[in-house]
């Protein structure tokens, strides 16, 4: 592989370099305590760039911008190196970004022909630009997106190829087992009922709980079951970060008695079963009071096994398709669409509650649907010409082909339906759930996954049938997202969500949690700035999908297909300036 040529006078990037904000620098945000879902590395190549130099070829650089959620301003994220004299650059320097499935991250790649040492981009020749989202790159076949470069009228600006690769820095999980010996006796009658609580340390010295073992009853020498935890949860990938383990005696009333504690780290634990992993359990209060105090028992690591986790992205890269279906509540409880109080109000100047929810969530999910064709259904309306009530009708009026092109197509069909159907009732969810389940039941090999988005005012008539549909669907490759609009109490929707109590029907429990409910009103800010609230809405709505998806694949033992071989650009002989 040839090292990229550098222009005369080129200085290696650094704080004092010509281009100070370089691509490899991903600024760490100390204020954000959330753990990034995944880090992805973006590689950029171009083909047939414009030639702006008279006596030689262009000397291209790529500059990446990201867009702020609130004010939509473009901010520079980083720059690649400059490659001298080529119209077909394969940039060596990568962009490393945090990737959240539930957020729409808009990206802009600008290309320049570098003519001098100046870091000021206006001093260089513009070669064009490309807009996309991070999800679009990741969601492309083999996570490789090829798009035309645009921005110079009347000129063909060439193409850009962006490839995303998930960084495997922290995709391991650990299977660990512990036992203890001679723990302090805390119960008056009988022995202690011990359990362990694991905490990871934070930058500010505080601790965050990350795991609790089960309680082993009536013993001072417990052997706990092996448990699995992600390295990210245990120490956020920092092998030397302190892990604090507390030992408690379980009490029925919740006032568990503190037996003692010890500290360790991932690096220490990774030595496995050895003399290094026998820990004295110390109770600081007892230690301070009793001169002869030795310890409150010992805890021993019995086993430590590292497993590399497969991720949602592995399946997408391997070709698993995500299919989204939209279902909209057209029942009379939403109010008359000609009245401003209606959730379906046809306001010529702004989106109604349904339109806002549809647009917010739809814009995120469409990046993951390869053909961008969405079946869009309505339920609870009387249809022309005969006024029959339907609980699964095509918004575009074509039951044989209910597909709409993109979210804009769904929005168009929704507004068209509002003008032609009569809002009615009852509110039955089961028919649309069963509609999607029929498709999901026909493809159980992991090649497709189905997501149903139901937008509703939360009033439901067929609770028992809906629960049964959800329990049956929990065995299938599908998830259901319910977005509640309007001011109603959403107790029934919370029950369907099943986060607190797993949903059941006729004594059968759902095999896995497949429903996520989000009340839309929680995301409308007082200032009426819908953009911020929509971003938060989409984040919360989609946050559970990767785990629901993985739970189906794990239960079925389906491994991701290998990704297509990575794109290897042809090697170009680099022409050096004479």
Brief synopsis:
The chain is of the alpha+beta class and 578 residues long. The chain has 3 domains: 38-167, C2 domain (Immunoglobulin-like, Sandwich); 172-308, Immunoglobulin-like; 319-556, Rossmann fold. The protein contains 12 helices and 28 strands.
What does it look like?
The chain is 19% helix and 30% strand. By secondary structure, it is α+β, with helices and mostly antiparallel strands. It has three domains: 38-167, C2 domain (Immunoglobulin-like); 172-308, Sandwich (Immunoglobulin-like); 319-556, 3-Layer(aba) Sandwich (Rossmann fold). The strands form seven sheets. Strands 17, 18, 21, 22, 24, 25 and 28 form a seven-stranded mixed sheet that branches. It is flat, with a radius of gyration of 29 Å. The two termini are 22 Å apart. Mean pLDDT is 84; it is low at 1-36. GO terms for molecular function: calcium-dependent phospholipid binding; metal ion binding.
Pick out its properties:
single chain, 578 residues, alpha+beta, Immunoglobulin-like, Rossmann fold, 3 domains, 7-stranded mixed beta sheet, 4-stranded antiparallel beta sheet, 12 helices, 19% helix
Q: Could you give me the name of the CATH homologous superfamily of the largest domain?
A: von Willebrand factor, type A domain
The level 1 CATH classification of the largest domain is Alpha Beta
Largest sheet: 7 strands, mixed
CATH topology of the largest domain, which one? Rossmann fold
Q: How large is the count of helical segments? A: 12
How much helix is in the residues? 10-25%
- DSSP strand tally: 28
How many structural units, i.e. domains? 3
Note the gap between the termini: 22 Å
Query: Radius of gyration from the CA trace?
Result: 29 Å
Low-confidence stretches: 1-36
Strand-residue proportion: 25-35%
Named CATH architecture of the largest domain: 3-Layer(aba) Sandwich
Report the mean per-residue pLDDT as an integer.
Answer: 84
Structural class: alpha+beta
Shape category: flat
Organism: Urocolius indicus (Red-faced mousebird)
Domain VWFA: 323-524
Protein name: Copine-8
GO molecular function: calcium-dependent phospholipid binding; metal ion binding
């Amino acid at each position: 592989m040839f090292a990229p040529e550098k222009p005369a006078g080129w200085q290696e990037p650094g704080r004092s370099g010509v281009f100070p904000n370089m691509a490899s620098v991903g600024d760490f945000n100390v204020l954000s305590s959330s753990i990034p879902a995944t880090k992805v590395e973006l590689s950029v190549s171009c083909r047939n760039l414009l030639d702006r130099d008279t006596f030689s070829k262009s000397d291209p650089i790529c500059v990446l911008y990201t867009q702020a959620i609130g004010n939509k301003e473009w901010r520079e994220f980083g720059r690649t190196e400059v490659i001298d004299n080529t119209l077909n650059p394969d940039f060596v320097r990568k962009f490393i970004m945090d990737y959240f499935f539930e957020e729409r991250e808009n990206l802009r790649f600008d290309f320049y022909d570098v003519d001098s040492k100046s870091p000021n981009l206006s001093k260089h020749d513009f070669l064009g630009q490309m807009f996309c989202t991070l999800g679009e790159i990741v969601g492309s076949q083999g996570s490789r997106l090829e798009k035309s470069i645009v921005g110079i009228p009347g000129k063909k600006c060439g193409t850009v190829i962006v490839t995303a690769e998930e960084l495997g820095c922290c995709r391991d999980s650990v299977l660990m087992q512990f036992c203890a010996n001679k723990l302090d006796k805390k119960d008056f009658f009988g022995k202690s009922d011990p359990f362990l609580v694991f905490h990871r340390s934070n930058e500010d010295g505080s601790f965050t709980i990350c795991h609790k073992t089960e309680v082993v009853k009536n013993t001072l020498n417990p052997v706990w079951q092996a448990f699995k935890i992600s390295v990210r949860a245990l120490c956020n990938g920092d092998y030397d970060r302190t892990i604090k383990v507390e030992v408690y005696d379980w009490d029925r009333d919740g006032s568990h008695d503190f037996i003692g504690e010890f500290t360790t780290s991932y690096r220490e634990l990774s030595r496995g079963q050895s003399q290094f992993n026998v820990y004295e359990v110390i109770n600081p209060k007892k230690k301070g009071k009793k001169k002869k105090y030795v310890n409150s028992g010992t805890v021993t690591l019995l086993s430590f096994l590292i497993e590399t986790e497969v991720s949602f992205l592995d399946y997408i890269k391997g070709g698993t398709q995500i299919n989204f279906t939209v279902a909209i509540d057209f029942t009379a409880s939403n109010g008359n669409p000609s009245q401003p109080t209606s959730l379906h109000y046809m306001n010529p100047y702004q989106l109604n509650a349904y339109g806002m929810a549809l647009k917010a969530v739809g814009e995120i999910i469409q990046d993951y649907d390869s053909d961008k064709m969405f079946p869009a259904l309505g339920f609870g309306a009387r249809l022309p010409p005969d006024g029959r009530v339907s609980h699964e009708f095509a918004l575009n009026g074509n039951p044989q082909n209910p597909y709409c092109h993109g979210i804009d197509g769904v929005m168009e069909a929704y507004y068209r339906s509002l003008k032609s159907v009569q809002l009615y009732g009852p509110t039955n969810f089961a028919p649309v759930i069963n509609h999607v389940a029929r498709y999901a039941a026909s493809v159980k090999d992991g090649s497709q996954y189905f997501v149903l988005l139901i937008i509703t005012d939360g009033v439901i008539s067929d609770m028992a049938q809906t629960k049964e549909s959800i329990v049956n669907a929990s065995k299938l490759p599908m998830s259901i997202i319910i977005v509640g609009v309007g001011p109603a109490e959403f107790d029934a929707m919370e029950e369907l969500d099943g986060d607190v109590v797993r949903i059941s029907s006729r004594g059968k429990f759902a095999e896995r949690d497949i429903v996520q409910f989000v009340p839309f009103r929680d995301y409308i800010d007082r200032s009426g700035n819908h953009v911020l609230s929509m971003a938060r809405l989409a984040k919360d709505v989609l946050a559970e999908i990767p785990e629901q998806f993985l739970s189906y694949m794990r239960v079925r033992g389906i491994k991701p297909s290998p990704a297509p071989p990575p794109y290897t650009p042809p090697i170009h002989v680099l022409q050096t300036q004479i």
